[in-house]
Design a protein that fits this description.
Pfam families: AAA_22 (PF13401), BTAD (PF03704), TPR_12 (PF13424), Trans_reg_C (PF00486). This is Tetratricopeptide repeat protein. It comes from Kribbella qitaiheensis. Keywords: DNA-binding. GO terms for molecular function: ADP binding; DNA binding. The protein is mainly alpha-helical. Among the domains are: about 170 residues, Winged helix-like DNA-binding domain superfamily/Winged helix DNA-binding domain (Arc Repressor Mutant, subunit A, Orthogonal Bundle), CATH 1.10.10; about 130 residues, Rossmann fold (3-Layer(aba) Sandwich), CATH 3.40.50.300; about 80 residues; about 70 residues, Arc Repressor Mutant, subunit A (Orthogonal Bundle), CATH 1.10.10.10; about 90 residues; about 110 residues, Tetratricopeptide repeat domain (Serine Threonine Protein Phosphatase 5, Tetratricopeptide repeat, Alpha Horseshoe), CATH 1.25.40. About 65% of the residues lie in helices and about 5% in strands. The protein is built from 47 helices and twelve strands. It has a five-stranded parallel sheet, sandwiched between helices. Strand 2 and strand 3 form a beta hairpin. Helix 31 runs antiparallel to helix 32. The chain is extended, with a radius of gyration of 43 Å.
Length: about 1000
């Protein structure tokens, strides 16, 4: 069912047949419900609308009768239509969709027309909308109060749609056809200035200048007589333009934008943002560094506009000539009387126009002043500017044009290189390096693409250190863009002297810097100057930090060397970052740990640069202070390779001070324990500790003894390691080193694993955890948890072990300590293994192994891969298990990992036994037994005895096997660690074999 109110009321069926609605009161009732479509109308309001001041005696009963008549009329045409007129607590409602009412369809078509930029499509939508009208809206109730607001709104929209269609047709050049139609409309609506403006333009373009001037005079007289007012500013400006035959009225092409030579790449999001901003704002400025593609993006945005667009090139224009350049572009001559700026404003006020002001940065003050005046005078004017700094006007909207993201940068480079080089051969790795080194700057990438034909991408990537000589040339582009150096020269030349000094001094930073660092190292007012350099798009500001694009940094470094300041600035830079690292070091042990880890993460490149300078200039004390301050950070972050290299570099410098040397040597020996080729760890540690005998630093010595124990606890001599950690605990207690004490207690708890002293593990672990909780040290909390996790695992309390592992993994992940995350993830894999969930166990162990490899931590990698081996053996994949175990046997033997060696020998012995290779099994288990006996770990000895039992049982020596199993069980019980159910896989299997019965669990 369809309802038409744009004229007299008409109701039609879906097939178009008319529906008779009898009686004037019933029709009025329906129209009232249509006016209030979707909203209930009370009985009182309906009675008032139908009968006014003279309602019938039984008004509500009479209303119900009219409602029934309406329902009956609708139901005759469509069964079930009675329900369309619904009654509720608030009154009566017509329940139909808005789209079945012609007034709603009209409004939707107008909205669609306004949303499209295609003039022909807009005209078609508006024409369809206007053709819905058959007469005045709500013609049946023209004098009724309830319909007045809706009728007036629709009539205004109808007139506006006429105006919009006329304007669109005028833009398409249909001025002659419009003259008669507009004359009729203006006669009916003589005071509408928008309609009159379109009429004047149509008359002028049809060659009827006198008629246009007469029409303007008629309007002016009518406004004066009826409203006591003058025509508005825009209409007055149009009148002046007609008087002087302004060229912009001639209907010439809408734009002077050049046609692009190639496709715009990678700017889809920026293009959409630019168009959205221009819809909402009258001044939009595209800002960004030189060569980033501001002009190209502005031209593309301009091409998307449906209004007149004028491009004004300002790159070669001096400040005094800006007004002339704009006036010339819009067709004004400077040979007439009157102020040119005023005439320009009048001209622009005569029609909607977008001015694209390109490259404003060198004349920014003059442009800003002129744009302010023009926007105030011409309401239909919009301005799209491109500049390396904002214009700084109220109401200005900025769109930052950023370098291309890697995928888009690669796409741009490849397309341009392929166009310039027939048969171009891609090298993804070299292309990625080029795009990264050139910061994704489109101009630099396009210049580089022209060199591919001569060099190829690999050679091009290799030569980018000399980028300013390499990326020179290019035709068909402005002089300032023909070389990469010229692009940055353009920005440099616009800077004040102090801004240039600041920019060149910023070249000493690597991968960004803070405001504080910039001020300290440059010895200049950074808060003021950095803001100016950011505004000029020479410094990038992100999340409280600043950085230079690589090409700007390379340019600035050349300027720094030219000024003779490089050596002094690099010395100041190194001193600043050494002081920062020393300030951070104690804060990495407590509640501020996470904050300072993040801070040092951000400054890693600057710390490396500082060390490089110290090493190159043989500033030994500076280098040693830096590596000593950074070593704990490197350890926490798992950057062990970097730590070893940096410590070796610093210790290789001449004339170290004894105290700094002792500390660095201890750090170095401890870090060496994590290396794949570590050997003679005990000797290296003893040499490091010997250096402390010549310095008075008991706290440093105690921490060194702890660290050298903590990094070797699983591989070194248990007796020697225990002596060291006991001395460290005694010294730390004496000197009140709470953090050191907690760390040493956690390490001593780990050493208790070697002889399964569960009481010691739990006592020291809980005491350590308590102190770390008090200090708020996240690393310490998850470290102290380790012995408690193992103790829970030994006793079969897998629930507690899993809970503590999960908590520790979360703590480590929050701190970004990925080595610890690897270890705890592997621990969770062990829990899944013991629960029989091998798929989950393999996923966790593999994840842990990858993390360990990323962190270059061999110990964590070994722990994870041994877990994979255990899972493979339990699943019966003996070959796979053997590979996993064998991978680590040599390394463990090399680094003195006696406990790990004994464990893997036992596993390899079990594999041989399960294969039926009993002699080989016996040999391996005997080696494992001897290794376990050498360091006295009762649990390791018990495991070896169980392995020997398996080999004996397989060889038919069942009685000996039973004796060995009993001896192993007694040993485990003696230390309070009998095998829990999850770890009885081998014992149960061997027990069945020794009793000469098949074991049902055998894979």
């Amino acid at each position: 069912m369809y309802f038409e109110v744009l004229g007299e009321l008409l109701v039609r069926t879906e097939t178009g047949d008319p529906i008779t609605v009898p009686d004037t009161k019933v029709r009025t009732l329906l129209l009232n419900l249509l006016v209030n479509l979707g909203r209930p109308v009370s009985a009182d309001r309906l009675i008032d609308a139908l009968w006014g001041d003279h309602p019938p005696r039984n008004a509500r009963g009479t209303l119900q009768a009219r409602i029934s008549q309406l329902r009956t009329a609708l139901a005759r045409a469509e069964p079930g239509a009675r329900a369309l007129v619904a009654h509720g607590p608030a009154g009566y409602t017509l329940q139909v969709s808005p789209e079945v009412v012609d007034s709603n369809k009209f409004e939707l078509l107008v909205t669609n027309a306004q949303a499209t930029r295609d003039l022909s499509e807009r005209i078609a939508c508006l024409t369809e909308a206007l053709e819905l009208w058959r007469g005045p809206a709500y013609a049946d109730v023209a004098d009724e109060e309830f319909a007045r607001a809706a009728r007036n709104r629709l009539e205004e929209q109808r007139l506006a749609a006429w105006e919009e269609r006329a304007e669109a047709r005028l833009e398409l050049g249909e001025h002659a056809e419009l003259v008669g139609e507009l004359a009729e409309l203006t006669a009916r609506h003589p005071l509408r200035e928008r309609l009159r403006s379109t009429q004047l333009k149509a008359l002028y373009r049809s060659g009827q200048q006198e008629a246009a001037l007469t029409a303007y005079a008629e309007l002016r007289e009518a406004l004066a007589e009826q409203l006591g007012a003058d025509p508005g500013r825009e209409l007055a400006a149009l009148h002046q333009a007609i008087l002087r035959h302004d060229p912009v009225l001639s209907g010439r092409p809408k734009t002077n934008l050049p046609t692009p030579l190639n496709e715009l790449i990678g700017r889809e999001k920026s293009l959409a943002q630019g168009n959205e901003l221009l819809c909402a704002a009258r001044l939009v400025t595209l800002v960004g560094p030189g060569g980033v593609g501001k002009t190209r993006l502005a031209l593309e945005i301009g091409r998307d506009q449906s209004t007149e667009v004028r491009l004004v090139e300002l790159a070669v224009v001096r400040a005094p000539d800006v007004l002339d350049a704009i006036a010339a572009t819009v067709g004004l001559r400077d040979d007439e009387s009157g102020e040119l700026a005023d005439r320009l404003a009048e001209s622009l006020a005569a029609r909607p126009v977008l001015l694209v002001l390109d490259n404003c940065e060198h004349v920014v003050e003059r442009v800003a002043d002129l744009v302010r005046r023009l926007l105030a005078a011409a309401a239909g004017l919009r301005v799209l500017a491109t500049s390396r700094e904002p214009l700084g006007l109220a109401g200005e909207h900025l769109l930052e044009v950023e370098p291309l993201e890697p995928p888009e940068a690669a796409r741009l480079f490849l397309e341009r290189a392929a166009a310039a080089t027939p048969g171009f051969a891609n090298d993804p790795e070299a292309v990625a390096a080029i795009c990264r080194r050139l910061d994704g700057i489109p101009l630099a990438l396009e210049l580089a693409a022209t060199r591919v034909r001569a060099l190829g991408v690999q050679e091009l990537a290799a030569r980018l250190d000399d980028r300013f000589r390499l990326l020179a040339g290019g035709r068909g582009v402005p002089e300032r863009q023909r070389t990469l150096r010229a692009t940055i020269d353009w920005s440099w030349d616009l800077l004040a002297e102090q801004e240039r000094v600041m920019l060149r001094r910023l070249a000493v930073y690597a991968d960004g810097f803070t405001l504080d660092a910039a001020g300290e190292v440059s010895d200049l007012p950074a808060d003021e100057l950095l803001g100016k350099l950011v505004d000029r798009s020479l410094v990038v500001a992100t999340a409280g930090r600043y950085r230079l694009l690589e090409s700007v940094a390379a340019y600035s470094l050349e300027r720094l060397a030219e000024a003779g300041e490089e050596t002094r600035l690099r010395r100041r830079h190194a001193a600043y970052y050494v002081a920062l690292a020393e300030r951070a070091e104690p804060r990495l042990r407590g509640r501020e740990q996470q904050v300072w880890l993040g801070r040092l993460d951000q400054e890693s490149a600057n710390l490396r640069t500082a060390l490089d300078h110290a090493a190159r200039t043989e500033a030994t004390e500076l280098a040693l202070r830096l590596v000593n301050a950074c070593s704990w950070y490197w350890y926490l972050r798992g950057r062990l390779g970097e730590a070893r290299r940096s410590l070796t570099t610093a210790l290789g410098l001449p004339n170290p001070s004894p105290m700094l040397q002792a500390e660095a040597t201890a750090w170095s020996a401890g870090m060496a324990a994590t290396a794949a080729d570590s050997a003679n760890l005990t000797d290296a540690s003893e040499r490091a500790l010997a250096l402390y005998r010549d310095v008075d630093d008991p706290r440093g010595q105690a921490r060194a003894e702890w660290f050298l124990t903590a990094t070797q606890w699983a591989y070194g001599d248990p007796g020697l390691l225990l002596q060291r950690v006991d001395r460290a605990i005694e010294s730390m207690t004496e000197h009140g080193d709470r953090w050191g004490l907690a760390a040493a207690l956690s390490t001593r708890a780990q050493l208790a694993l070697t002889h399964a002293d569960l009481d010691a593990m739990q006592q020291d672990g809980l005491r350590s955890l308590g102190i770390f909780d008090e200090l708020g040290d996240g690393w310490g909390r998850q470290q102290a948890n380790y012995s408690l996790i193992v103790a829970a695992e030994i006793t079969g309390d897998y629930e507690t072990a899993t809970r503590r592992l999960t908590e520790s993994a979360r703590l480590a992940e929050d701190l970004g300590m990925w080595t610890e995350v690897s270890l705890r993830t592997a621990g969770l894999g062990r829990m899944a293994l013991l629960a029989g969930d091998y798929t989950r166990a393999d996923e966790l162990h593999e994840k842990a192994r990858r993390l360990a490899i990323e962190q270059s931590n061999k110990s964590a990698e070994e722990y994870a891969e041994v877990g994979l081996g255990l899972s493979a053996r339990r699943q019966g994949d003996l070959d796979k298990a053997e590979r996993h175990f064998t991978n680590w046997l040599g390394w463990l033997q090399q680094v003195g990992g006696t406990a790990g060696t004994a464990f893997i020998l036992a596993q390899l012995g079990f594999i041989a036994e399960q294969r039926g290779e009993y002699e080989r099994a016996l040999e391996l288990q005997q080696q494992g037994y001897a290794t376990a006996k050498s360091f006295g770990d009762e649990r390791a000895i018990a495991l070896a005895l169980e392995g020997l039992a398996g080999a004996k049982a397989g060889a038919g020596l069942s009685h000996e096997a039973v004796v060995l199993l009993a001896e192993a069980e007694a040993l485990r019980r003696a230390v309070g660690a009998p095998l829990p159910p999850g770890e009885r896989f081998d014992v149960d299997r061997i027990t069945f074999r020794a009793s000469r019965r098949p074991w049902p669990g055998c894979p």
